[in-house]
Amino acid sequence: MIGFAILAFFQLVGWLIQRLTGLPLPANVIGLLLFIAALFLKWVPLHKVEETASFLLKYMSLFFVPVIVGSLAFFPYLREHWFVITGSGVISLLLPLLVTGWLVQSRIQARNNRQQKENAHVHRS
Amino acid sequence: MSIAADPLFGIAVTVIVYALFLWLQSRMSWVQPLLMTSAVIMLMLVILRIPVEDYQKGGSWLSFLLGPATIALGVPIYKNAEQIRRSWRPILGGITVGACCGLLSAGLIVLWMGGTRDMAWTLMPKSATTPISMEVSRLYGGYPELTAVLTVLTGLAGSIIGPPLLRLCGVTDETAIGVAIGTTSHGIGTARVLKDSEWMGAVSGFSMGLTGIWVSMLALPLHLLGL
């Protein structure tokens, strides 16, 4: 229960900050950033929140059900615009997927090659 | 007043149907509890002529929990930070480029195909994890409910075609696959790669959290630039 209280506390603080400052970030993201900071600063011990967090993350998809059911109202909109939505949806999934994959792999390979060369150099000298 | 107007109805029906599909998923791995539960409830509401507003009296109790669940994303980020630190440059670079690329391509393609700005903002945040994508959509004039559905569909598609497509295109490094999946397919993709390896799941979980933060931050300058 203390874990849930801690998470709710950061959610509340994020919401308050968003309300008071008008910061253009989702209130939950402000709460998340503060929570991460609190974990790194050891203000919140990991073991106090770990159990609640893993429960919430494990069953997170349950909390989306009402949201998706709410999309019933958008069926006429979807029927009208499905072509644009599908087109943009598919391309904007595949493009970043491949770009990110290639980029990270090439950077890691470049770094490994560099390290190998350095190691070889150390061995020779 | 119909019995469905009591909050108990929405909560109980959702939890029961969801638990049923979770159980089915443990026997048949292709079962998708989220999509199937939503579909069953939608059908039920339509067939029994129950107004969506009545269902939402209970439903909103459940969707409220998305708040604490978003904060909880901090835990996997914190736990994997030490391991991630060893190759932080490629990982951070990949997430940043991937998040930008996803936001921009989604928005520009919608506008290029003749869509409206509200449609662009409905699609743009969809590579972030759902509670964040919904909020970004709401903040900049998209339709949050539609963003939620599209986010889930994106995650589902990415988790199915992502890993084989990446390998087909020559991406075999586990870290690279983890970052690519986490950046585009959030939690659903993360759950998928976690089945293959613990490390890929950790990298993907980290990428998903950071993508959520990046997307919500990058959205503002794009909005100011007139998108």
Question: Care to describe what's here?
Answer:
- The complex is a heterodimer of chains A (125) and B (227).
- With 125 residues, chain A is mostly helical.
- Chain A has two domains: 58 residues, no CATH class; 54 residues.
- Helices cover 86% and strands 0% of the residues of chain A.
- Chain A has five helices and no strands.
- Chain B has two domains: 62 residues; 153 residues, no CATH class.
- Chain B is globular, with a radius of gyration of 19 Å.
- At the A-B interface, helix 1, helix 2, helix 3, helix 4 and helix 5 of A face helix 1, helix 2, helix 3, helix 4 and helix 5 of B.
The general outline of chain A is flat
Number of strands of chain B: 0
Could you say how many structural domains of chain A there are in total?
A: 2
- H/E element string of chain B? HHHHHHHHHHH
Q: Assembly state here?
A: heterodimer
How does the major sheet of chain B shape up? none
**What is the straight-line distance between the termini of chain B?**
45 Å
N-to-C order of helices and strands of chain A: HHHHH
Give keywords.
heterodimer, A: mainly alpha, 2 domains, flat, B: 227 residues, mainly alpha, membrane (chain B)
Concise summary:
Chain A has two domains: 1-58, no CATH class; 72-125. With 125 residues, chain A is mainly alpha-helical. Chain A has helices spanning 2-21, 27-40, 46-58, 60-69, 75-124.
